[in-house]
Design a protein that fits this description.
By secondary structure, this protein is α/β, with parallel strands linked by helices. It is 48% helix and 15% strand. It folds into two domains: 35-113 and 225-335, Periplasmic binding protein-like II (D-Maltodextrin-Binding Protein, domain 2, 3-Layer(aba) Sandwich); 122-219, Periplasmic binding protein-like II (D-Maltodextrin-Binding Protein, domain 2, 3-Layer(aba) Sandwich). The protein has helices at residues 2-32, 47-54, 57-60, 73-82, 94-101, 127-131, 153-164, 180-188, 199-208, 233-238, 240-262, 267-278, 288-297, 310-322, 332-335; strands at residues 34-40, 63-69, 87-90, 105-110, 122-126, 144-147, 173-176, 194-197, 211-216, 228-232. Helix 9 (199-208) crosses helix 13 (288-297), helix 11 crosses helix 12 (267-278) and helix 12 (267-278) packs across helix 13 (288-297). It is globular, with a radius of gyration of 24 Å.
Length: 344
C-alpha cells in the first residue's frame, strides 16, 4: 500500500513539473514577443501587412503588431524618425530622404511596383478638363496637377510625365493639398485638372463619371518602385533580426496577396476570401458588395521577398536632387540599407 502511494506521489509530482514547464514555456514565448507599430495607408497596396497580421505570420515571427494609419507618405516618415512607428510601407518622399540624410531612416525592402500587363497607377483628369480637350498627358502643359506635398511621389510622377512629353513641372501648376482625400475632392469638383493614383481609387472615381482616364504611369515609369519598406536607422543597425522577422512575415503576406488577386492562382474562392480579409482595413465603412470591386481593382504586384529595385530608387534620388528637394551629396547608401533583401 505504501509502495503504491509513493508511485502515485511521484506521478503527481512529475505531472506537476511537466505542467509547470509547459506553462512556463508558453509564458516565456508570450513574453518574448516584440511589440512593433506598423505605419500604413488604407490602400489595397498595403494589403500584405494586413494579410500577415490576420493570418498570424507576424505572430509566427514573435511580433505583436499594432497598426497606425496615415493619409500621406511624409507624415509616416516623420513618425518612423520619432520612434512612434517602427516600420512603414509607403512611397519615397523628399521628407523621407532628408530624414535618411540626418541618420534617422533606412529603406530596407521593396513593396509595390509597376509591372507591364498589370493595371497600375492611372493618370486622371477632371471631366471639365477633359471636355476642354485635355484628353492625353501631352496636353497637361499649362494645367494644374494635384499632389499631397512638394517632394511626394505624386510630384515625382508629374515630373516624369512632363519630361517624357517634352515640358517640365514648371510648365504646370502643382497644387499641394496635403491629403489624398483632399486631392480626390478637388479633382472631382474641377478645382484641379489632373492627378495620378493607384487603381483601386482611380477605377472607383472613373465609375462616378466626374473624372476621365488619359494614360497610365507605367508608360512613363515602367519600372517604378512605387512603395518601399523602411524603418529607423536604429532598428536597421542595432536590431537587424527584428527587421528580418518583419520582412519575412510581410513577404508571406505579399505571396498570399499576389497569388489571390494578382496572379489569380487561388481561383474565385481564394480571391473572395482575400477581398473579405482586406475589407477589414480598406473601404471598411462600405458594404463589401460595393468595396469588393475596388479592392480587386487595386491589386498591383508586390515584390517577392521584398526585393528592391535599386535602379529606380537611384532614379528617384537623382530626381529629388535635381529638383533641389534634397542635398546634392546624399548617396544611395545614405538612403538604403541593402543587407536585408535582394536588389536589382
Amino acid at each position: 500500500m505504501m509502495s503504491l502511494s509513493r508511485r502515485s506521489f511521484k506521478k503527481a509530482v512529475l505531472g506537476s513539473l511537466v505542467a509547470l514547464t509547459a506553462f512556463g514555456g508558453t509564458a516565456l514565448t508570450a513574453a518574448a514577443a516584440d511589440k512593433i507599430t506598423v505605419g500604413a495607408l488604407r490602400f489595397t497596396s498595403h494589403a500584405p501587412s494586413f494579410v500577415a497580421f490576420e493570418k498570424g505570420y507576424f505572430t509566427d515571427e514573435g511580433l505583436e503588431v499594432e497598426f497606425k494609419f496615415f493619409q500621406a507618405a511624409q507624415p509616416m516618415a516623420v513618425a518612423i524618425a520619432s520612434g512612434d512607428v517602427d516600420f512603414g510601407i509607403t512611397a519615397i518622399s523628399g521628407g523621407l530622404i532628408n530624414l535618411a540624410e540626418k541618420g534617422a531612416i533606412k529603406v530596407i525592402g521593396g513593396a509595390l511596383q509597376e509591372e507591364p500587363g498589370i493595371d497600375g497607377q492611372i493618370i486622371l483628369v477632371s471631366k471639365a478638363a477633359y471636355d476642354e480637350g485635355i484628353t492625353s498627358p501631352e496636353k497637361l502643359k499649362g494645367r494644374s496637377f494635384g499632389i499631397t506635398q512638394a517632394g511626394s511621389s505624386f510630384h515625382y510622377m508629374a515630373s516624369k510625365i512632363a519630361e517624357k512629353e517634352g515640358f517640365s513641372t514648371a510648365d504646370m501648376k502643382l497644387v499641394p493639398l496635403q491629403k489624398v482625400g483632399a486631392v480626390i475632392g478637388a479633382l472631382k469638383s474641377g478645382q484641379v485638372d489632373s492627378w495620378t493614383i493607384v487603381p483601386h481609387i482611380a477605377k472607383a472615381l472613373l465609375k462616378g463619371g466626374a473624372v476621365m482616364q488619359i494614360g497610365m504611369v507605367a508608360d512613363y515609369i515602367p519600372d517604378y518602385q512605387v512603395t518601399t519598406v523602411f524603418t529607423s536607422t536604429e532598428i536597421a543597425e542595432t536590431k537587424p533580426d527584428l527587421a528580418k522577422r518583419f520582412l519575412k512575415a510581410f513577404s508571406r503576406g505579399a505571396d498570399d496577396f499576389n497569388a489571390a488577386l494578382v496572379d489569380k492562382s487561388e481561383g474565385e474562392e481564394g480571391a473572395t476570401a482575400m477581398v473579405a480579409l482586406i475589407h477589414k482595413y480598406v473601404y471598411a465603412d462600405q458594404p463589401i458588395e460595393k468595396a469588393g470591386p475596388s479592392i480587386r481593382n487595386g491589386a498591383m504586384r508586390v515584390n517577392k521577398d521584398a526585393a528592391l529595385n535599386l535602379t529606380n530608387i537611384q532614379d528617384q534620388l537623382d530626381w529629388f536632387k535635381a529638383e533641389g528637394l534634397v542635398k546634392e551629396d546624399i548617396t544611395i547608401e545614405t538612403l538604403v540599407n541593402s543587407n536585408f533583401v535582394e536588389t536589382f
